[in-house]
Design brief:
It is globular and about 60 Å long. By secondary structure, the protein is of the alpha/beta class. The chain is built from 11 helices and 13 strands. The two termini are 33 Å apart. It has a domain of 204 residues: NAD(P)-binding Rossmann-like Domain (Rossmann fold, 3-Layer(aba) Sandwich). The strands form 4 sheets. The chain has a 7-stranded parallel β-sheet, sandwiched between helices. A two-stranded parallel sheet has the order 6-13. Strands 8-10 form a two-stranded parallel ribbon. Helix content is 40%, strand content 18%.
Length: 305
């Protein structure tokens, strides 16, 4: 047995991959969450739980978090802070109060903390200007964790992830696959904008060394495919025609109409700007310190679909 890992967020897309990969490496997985099947049942947002003594924990992977939604009220905004920031504090305080202080702690964060819609090869020293509740709650958690780790002599690793790919992915990538498959996806302009992506199993595999080394790291597949490459590759795997193309000028008109329609519209100027702008991140620090050697997501499309 390689050791024991405490994992939060084990029911999520990435959490399931992390659990499977670490078990494959020989780790015993203890899970913490609201669902009854978790080793430790706890609502991190409320903090109403006690860790008691789960036994020796070599490191923690904190993958639980609130994401992939757009809050429409102050109450919905508050949920992001309750889960991502307060939930992180509750977990850490419970760890300290228990007799199982881990040697390492891995926090799953996001490149959204940079708050940028465009840019090329941005590194970890880029200013954290994220303004969404998701980004701001993750920034607060990162900053609090850095002080907590130093105070309690726990090695802290913060992994800032871009779009995460894996088998049957959720979110925008899943929507792209479904849209291309049913012929309803529209490719805009030349589709040359590049985006950083990362393969979920690669993120999972790096956990033990990240927990040992500590630090702040962007993780990407190192290739940063364009929308056109993803569209073409997905269509090839699905054995369907390439997505229909919409000239950029027409897309701008549709986006303007979407601005007038409000939330009912599937496209607006903000979404169009993100789709047509390159946004990539530099993972050279992870390659140097963690020996990060990821797969190209384009080479994993068969496994993804």
């Amino acid at each position: 047995m390689a050791g024991s890992v405490l994992l939060t967020g084990s029911t999520g897309f990435l959490g399931k991959v992390i659990a499977a990969e670490l078990q494959k490496q020989g780790y015993e997985i203890l899970t913490l969450g609201k669902h009854h099947h978790n080793t430790i049942k706890a609502d991190l947002a409320k903090g109403e739980f006690e860790m008691e003594n789960p036994g020796k924990i070599d490191f923690v992977v904190h993958a639980a978090g609130k994401a992939h939604s757009h809050p429409r009220s102050p109450e919905e905004i508050k949920v992001f802070y309750d889960v991502n920031f307060e939930g992180t504090k509750h977990l850490c305080n419970a760890l300290v109060a228990s007799a199982s202080k881990p040697a390492g702690f891995v926090f799953i964060s996001t490149v959204a903390v940079y708050g940028l819609d465009k840019g090329e090869m941005l590194d970890e020293d880029t200013v954290l200007n994220g303004e969404t509740p998701y980004a701001k709650s993750k920034i607060q958690a990162e900053q609090w964790l850095q002080g907590w780790g130093k105070t309690h002599n726990i090695q802290l690793a913060i992994l800032r992830l871009p779009l995460v790919a894996g088998p049957k992915p959720p979110g925008n990538l899943g929507a792209m696959i479904r849209g291309i498959g049913n012929g309803r996806y529209l490719s805009i302009g030349r589709a040359m904008a590049k985006k950083s992506v990362v393969w979920a199993a690669d993120v999972a595999a790096i956990m033990p060394i990240a927990a040992q080394k500590g630090g702040v790291f962007n993780l990407t597949d190192g290739y940063n495919p364009s929308f056109g490459e993803l569209e073409t590759g997905i269509a090839h795997v699905l054995d369907v025609k390439r997505a229909r193309k919409v000239p950029h000028g027409l897309a701008k008109v549709l986006a303007f109409v979407g601005d007038l329609m409000g939330k009912r519209s599937p496209i607006n100027s903000n979404k169009l700007r993100k789709i047509t702008s390159t946004l990539t991140f530099d993972d050279s620090r992870a390659r140097k310190i963690l020996n990060w050697q990821p797969n190209r997501v384009l080479d994993k499309l068969q496994d993804m679909i």
